[in-house]
Design a protein that fits this description.
There is one protein chain. The chain is an alpha/beta fold. It folds into two domains: 137 residues, Aspartate Aminotransferase, domain 1 (Alpha-Beta Complex); 249 residues, 3-Layer(aba) Sandwich (Aspartate Aminotransferase, domain 2), CATH 3.40.640.10. Helices cover 40% and strands 13% of the residues. A seven-stranded mixed beta sheet has the order 2-8-7-6-5-3-4, with helices on both faces. A three-stranded antiparallel beta sheet has the order 9-12-11. A two-stranded parallel ribbon has the order 1-10. It is globular.
Length: 401
């Protein structure tokens, strides 16, 4: 008897390489001890939340009326939180965002799933530059959507290939999804590239006319605060009326387990209120109901704070040294906390296996839609990065031999 659908069975068979390597890491740690394994497989933020977090939680717990506020809240989020997030995004996005443009969600993942449920019909396409976050295909595929990755320009720092993206658009294309700073490459898309992508969206929507189904520009931004060496992440909402920004506080505030994210619809979007209402509905009917109330209130109280991002920058520089000393070719990431170096010899599985023999865990690039590279997460202690240096050298020497 068949207990699950063919679609889910196929997804299980092609299970996330990230999860596979995480499980392999658990096995190696049992065999050799946790201190012996250098695990760069998971992007799980390990830097403590801002110091103010404890005081905020204590104040919430000591409230005289409804301590912590653990009841249901409006499906779109606590009104005061939506207002605070809107004001925060208005500054960040240089756009007149109001509470009515914002829906609080269960992380950025919940934001994407709720958005796709509202706008994607079976057979609709979602285009994204590759490499890309592995779950995108499932997020739109749950509703019959089809993810269409378009290779980025690897030799130019993984910039999006705007011409190729435009050529990939068909009448079925419903969304253009970008992720900057990017997971897994650390690339920050320039303002010029984002303007060119927005221009493509506007051109497509002009051709489709007022009676057509619009093409959306989705910007998935959980790593927005992670920009190094003076780099800036350009605002997206002003670029096109059909821009939608999705984000979370999992990384910037180290609150990944609280699952707090948001959808923000451009104030200039024609009939944007209908989209906000639709995402509010799907946020509820997908079973999320509402974003966690403690997390909402935490995020609103900590909007001017971040975890210590300098820690990630130090790790980035140390990892760059480790890779350079081992003779690994890579593009220095300008954002996020990942590296996406080339696999020596071009075989990412062979490189992952060689590293694994040295008790170093990486994720093959094919798990992100681009074979020939590997992903390394720097959300680990500097001691682990330093300890991995000899393992990288031996793995590279083994492949070259």
């Amino acid at each position: 008897m068949q207990t699950v659908t063919d679609q889910i069975k196929a997804s299980m068979a092609g299970s996330s390489w990230i999860r596979k390597m995480f499980e392999k890491g658990m096995e190696l740690k049992r065999q050799h001890g946790a201190e012996a394994v250098c695990d760069f497989s998971l992007g799980n933020p390990d830097v403590p939340p801002p110091a103010k977090t404890k005081a905020v939680l204590e104040a919430m717990a000591s409230e005289a009326v409804k301590p912590l506020g653990l009841g249901y809240c409006p499906n779109a989020g606590i009104p005061a939180v939506r207002e605070a997030i809107a004001a925060y995004l208005a500054r960040q996005q240089q756009s007149p965002v109001s509470a009515g443009n914002v829906v609080m969600t269960v992380g950025a993942a919940g934001a994407l799933v709720s958005f796709f449920r509202a706008v994607v019909a079976p057979g609709d396409e979602v285009i994204c530059p590759s490499p890309y976050f592995v779950e995108y295909g499932s997020y739109c595929g749950h509703f019959g959507g089809v993810l269409k990755p378009v290779p980025s320009i690897a030799d130019d720092g993984f910039r999006p290939d705007v011409a190729a993206i435009e050529a990939a658009i068909t009448p079925k294309t419903r969304a253009l999804l970008v992720n900057s700073p990017n997971n897994p490459t650390g690339c920050i898309y320039s303002e010029e590239d984002m303007r060119r992508l927005a221009s493509v969206v506007d051109k497509v929507n002009a051709a489709r006319g007022d009676e057509g189904r619009p093409l959306f520009l989705l910007s998935d931004e959980p790593y927005r605060a992670f920009a190094y060496d003076g780099a800036t992440v350009p605002p997206v909402l002003p670029l096109t009326p059909y821009a939608v920004v999705l984000g979370s506080f999992s990384k910037t505030l180290s609150l990944a387990g609280e699952r707090i994210g948001y959808v923000a619809v451009s104030p200039q979007m024609p009939d944007g209120a209908t989209l906000v209402n639709a995402v509010t509905l799907t946020n509820r009917t997908l079973g999320f109901v509402n974003a966690p109330v403690i997390g909402q209130r935490l995020a609103a109280a900590l909007l001017d704070e971040t975890a210590d991002l300098d820690v990630y920058d130090r790790r980035r520089k140390l990892m760059a040294k480790v890779l350079t000393d081992a003779g690994v070719d890579f593009t220095m990431p300008r954002g996020a906390f990942y590296f996406f170096p080339k696999a020596p010899g071009g075989d990412d599985l062979a490189f992952v296996d060689a590293l694994q023999d040295e008790l170093v865990l990486a994720v093959p690039g094919r798990g992100f839609g681009m074979a020939g590279f590997v992903r390394l997460s720097c959300s680990v202690d500097e001691k682990i990065i330093a300890r991995s240096a000899d393992g990288f050298k031996r793995a590279v020497a083994k492949l070259k031999a």
